[in-house]
Write a structure and sequence with these properties.
Layout lengths: L3 E6 L2 E8 L2 H16 L9 E8 L3 H19 L1 E12 L2 E10 L13 E3 L6 E3 L2 E9 L1
Helix pairs in contact: 1-2
Amino acid sequence: MQPFYIIDHTADVGIVAQGHDLRELCENAARGMMALIADVAHLRPTSEHRIDVSAPTHEQLLMALLREIHFLHETEGLLFTEVKVESCEGQRLIALAQAAPLEGAEDHVLNEIKAVTYHGMDIQREGDVLNTQIIFDT
């Protein structure tokens, strides 16, 4: 199973993420979004952020996680290097995200993502793997 892969979408960009369960799917989707934003492989995280989101459906829960990461990236000038979902039960997800400051790492930025969209998003089970496609406005 490939955790995620990047897809082209008209004028935007997207990912297909996979996971054996919702927790792993959310982690891989976050990693995919982070890979679209920047090459973070050589960045050293300097801060940790607790993300606690709630939503009525799995798709909305995943969307809430990605939108919160995007919000923190935009408002606090962070490049996230890792996201670990600690709990994903019912309608609540709790994750710890490590980040490096954007300032001084601008040369690592690959894309400016304007928004995370619901366009075509649907979590599907194929055998023992969950899949979803996420499109980002660039």
